[in-house]
Design a protein that fits this description.
Rossmann fold; alpha/beta; 13 helices; six-stranded mixed β-sheet; 381 residues; six-stranded parallel β-sheet
């Protein structure tokens, strides 16, 4: 009996030791994981809930007097809003103070986001009123420095100069011109002229660049003026027009100069025409001799500016080599997409730049499709 008690006592001691060893052992990896996960998790941060697009009206404040360019901008707005599912409305008013009332009308109609056409800051008052009413504003195409503009997709208004200059110079080189001049022509050609000079000097130093300012409002007078200038400067082999109607004037002037040259030959130097005095404003290379062969014919490649019935027709007939397209449609379309992001609580860049495409005969169709759609939508046919 005593031996049995002794054995039980001994077993109890061993069991007690074993329990102590277990309680003092290092926690397992599973214990570590459980310990790390024990703090109370942070509340989940939820993204802004998407808006009900079909119930969110957006608008575009535009001038009452619209031209083809503005119709393209309006078309870009309406088409993109439709694609994204937004109900959209054009709010037309005279620029300036009158546009304030139209913004207030948009607010009463429940408009929750606005594009504002702000050419030369003419609708600054509309933007200010929209800010006071807490309506998000995006300004397309033109650069805007107005306070409260959340996004400003703007056209690079002179970004095209290098490509057009090199295109004309390349065409001159293809015609095996060893020298010659590119003329930048229009009512205000100086800004584009600088880009042409830089590009031609860098890539085609054998050619020169000049500009000539149109001084006539009457189109026929402008044609006659340019034709006479071309006749006296037959080393001009490339010509870019900075005005929307400039290509039409240039093509007519080129033809008129060719007819005069064939009929009468070169003008006599002793009878310095009045136009030569006006041409002194044009920075011409003073020390560059003109090869005789260069002035025996009038052959000029013309590039135009603006997308309209005239430039489209001239491009189709190969009367001009290319035309610069103002991205009114693209600017408005991009503005709507930015407004969509803003309304959904997403961040956007305050400013972005859109290139001005160079349209050639091979790419004309896709741009003409949008142009014709705009004409159909607004009854311009």
């Amino acid at each position: 009996m005593k031996s049995i008690l002794t054995c039980l006592k001994t077993a109890g001691i061993y069991l007690l030791c074993a329990l102590c060893l277990v309680s003092c052992a290092k926690p397992s990896a599973a214990d570590d994981i459980a310990s790390a996960a024990s703090p109370t998790p942070k509340p989940e941060v939820k993204a802004n809930a998407p808006i009900n697009v079909s119930g969110t009206l957006i608008g575009f404040v535009v001038p009452k007097a619209a031209d083809e360019a503005l119709y393209l901008a309006m078309h870009g707005f309406l088409r993109t809003a439709e694609n994204l599912g937004y109900p959209a409305k054009l709010f037309q008013a005279a620029q300036g103070i009158a546009s304030v009332a139209i913004v207030e009308q948009a607010d009463r109609e429940g408009c929750e986001g606005l594009l504002v056409w702000d050419e030369n800051g003419a609708n600054a008052a509309a933007i200010k009123r929209a800010n006071e009413l807490s309506i998000p504003v995006v300004v397309p195409y033109y650069k805007s420095s107005e306070e409260g503009v959340l996004a400003n997709p703007q056209a690079d208004l002179l970004g095209y100069t290098e490509e057009v200059a090199l295109s004309l110079a390349q065409r001159m080189q293809e015609r095996e011109c060893k020298a010659g001049k590119i003329l930048v022509y229009g009512t205000s050609p100086e800004a584009a002229y600088g880009g042409f000079v830089e590009a031609v000097a860098a890539y085609y130093p054998q050619f020169n660049v000049a500009y000539f300012k149109c001084s006539n409002v009457d189109e026929q007078a402008a044609v006659d003026e340019l034709a006479e200038y071309i006749l006296w400067n037959r080393d001009i082999k490339g010509l870019f027009c900075t005005d929307r109607n400039g290509a039409r004037i240039a093509v007519q002037a080129r033809q008129a100069a060719q007819n005069l040259f064939k009929r009468n030959g070169a003008p006599e130097a002793k009878a310095t025409p009045k136009i030569a005095e006006a041409a002194t404003e044009t920075p011409l290379p003073s020390a560059t001799p003109v090869p005789e062969g260069l002035i025996k014919s009038i052959v000029i490649t013309v590039a135009g500016y603006g997308f309209n019935e005239d430039t489209i027709s001239l491009l189709r007939k190969n009367d001009i080599n290319a035309l610069v397209l103002e991205p009114y449609y693209d600017a408005s379309a991009h503005a709507v997409m930015l407004l969509d992001r803003i309304l959904n609580g997403q961040s956007v860049s305050a400013s972005s730049t859109l290139n001005m495409p160079i349209v050639r005969l091979a790419t004309l169709e896709k741009y003409e499709l949008i142009y014709n759609q705009a004409k159909e939508w607004f009854g311009l046919n």
